[in-house]
Amino acid sequence: MLLFQLIKKESLQIFRNRTAFIMMVVFPILMILILSFAFKSSFSTTTAVPKLKVHYQLEGKKTAYQEGFVTFLKSLHKELGLEAKPSKNLAADKQDVKEGSLTAVLEVKPNQTINVTTNRINQQNADLINMLVDTYVENAKTYDSIETLYPQLLAKVKTRTVDYVTVRSTKVNKNMTSSDYFAISMVTMITFYGIMSAMNLVLVDYQKGTLSRIRLTGVSSTNVLLGKLIGGMLATGVQLTLLYLFTRFAMQVNWGDRPLAIMGLIGSLVYLSTAIGIGLASGIRNDVFLIAASNVVIPIFAFLGGSYIPLSVFNSALLNQLAMISPIKWMNDSLFYLIFGGSFNPIAISLAVNVGVGTCFILFALFSMRKQVTL
Fold first, then answer.
1. Most exposed residue of 21, 159, 231, 310, measured as fewest CB within 10 angstroms of its CB?
2. Phi, psi at residue 230, to the nearest 5°?
3. Alpha-carbon gap, residue 358 to 352, rounded angstroms
4. Angstrom distance (rounded) from CA 253 to CA 244
């Protein structure tokens, strides 16, 4: 019952600041409407095949399998404009892949296996390369099976011309619109702004002396901390619910068909942002510094997460590498994977980072509160 009263106090403290509460709902809605309209043409349901550049290495004595693969690459150059060159320095080429200047490195082994090295900078290109290599491997396996079981038919099969690629664009069942992209991105960004609301819960208590009066009643630091954590998460959850309802029913945004999984993912980011806010305010009670730092750092993380504009627009390997430090980027990628699919699943990383880092900040806040009590 005591914990419930603390949770009620903290959540009402956020709700009473009506201007800030409303702005945290109205501002992202306006941003979604403006940005989705501005980038509407960038999210066409038909996607042109991207420019691909690969280097390959034929290991050991050249085999028919390897020669067939080179022929396959030549057909892809004709159909897709894929640029394929023999590798002169495998280690250097792999470094180029890591930095994003090269799409992939293909190592064709004598034992009919192909090692593919790609990166996460442009997942679309990596997926396409893997799909094309799989296509060749499956065709080669088919030829081998026919040669083993029906050798008399092999000559007829070899005379057939295989069209590996027949169209220059691809369509998928779940196309992401600009409204889908920016609705999801704004939800994660506003969730991260929950840091400031959580900081305010701690700073206001210190300024008004509320925390000291609460402690005089015998309330433990753990209960105080849980009240702020759950109360802050509850208030942020209400804001996100309003934003979700508007985007889903007014804008027809595709939020997928796995609501519990999506709630769990977003909930982990709510936990992280609230924990960071409480932890920072508990250890650094300089409200001017904290607010100024938050107003600088949060927008940077939002930018790196693609909240304002997709980073693919810049085609910058450096930006894509820097984006790895943004929890918003990992959360956006996780939600996009969950709703629209993809070959790389970042959900485990997102949950581990959100829960792990959030728990570290909570433990730091608890340590700071108990230290202040002993003083």
1. 159
2. -70, -40
3. 10
4. 9
How distant, in Å, are the alpha carbons of 68, 70, 145, 153, 157 from that of 160?
A: 14, 18, 17, 12, 6
Give the closest residue to 261 by CA, choosing from 162, 337, 372: 337
Angle between helices 259-283 and 347-374 (to 10 degrees): 30
Hey, CA dihedral for 69, 72, 74, 76, is it positive or negative?
Answer: negative
C-alpha span between 328 and 299 (Å, rounded): 11
Q: Could you give the percent of the chain with pLDDT greater than 70?
A: 88
Place of tokens 């043409």: 41
Say which range, 21-30, 194-203, 212-221, has the weakest mean pLDDT: 212-221
Fill in the DSSP letter of residue 286: -
54 by DSSP, 3-state: which? strand
In degrees and rounded to multiples of 5, residue 339 shows phi and psi of -90, -45
- Cα 352–356–357 angle (5° rounding)? 115
- Supply the angle between the helices 178-192 and 259-283 in degrees, to the nearest 10: 30
Contact 82, 76 (CB under 8 A): yes
Residue 54 pairs in a beta bridge with 84, 104
Residues of the chain with CATH 3.40.190: 47-170
Taking the C-alpha atoms of residue 310 and residue 306, their distance in angstroms, rounded to an integer, is: 5
Sort strands 53-58 and 83-86 into parallel, antiparallel or unpaired: parallel
Per mean pLDDT, which of 23-27, 164-168, 265-269 is the most reliable?
A: 265-269
Domain 47-170: which CATH number of 3.40.50, 2.160.20, 3.10.20, 3.40.190: 3.40.190
Q: Could you report how far apart the first and last alpha carbons of the chain are, in Å? A: 28
List all residues 6 or more positions away from 143 whose beta carbon is below 8 Å from its beta carbon: 154, 157, 158
Average pLDDT rounded to a whole number, residues 63-81: 84
- Distance in angstroms (rounded) separating the CA atoms of residues 32 and 182: 5
What residue has token string 């208590």? 205
pLDDT digits (tens, 9 = 90+) for 297-309: 999 999 999 999 9
Closest by CA to 237, choosing from 201, 263, 211, 255, is 263
Query: For residue 172, what is the DSSP state?
Result: -
Residue 48 host element (H or E): strand 47-48
Q: Residues for the chain: how many in total?
A: 375
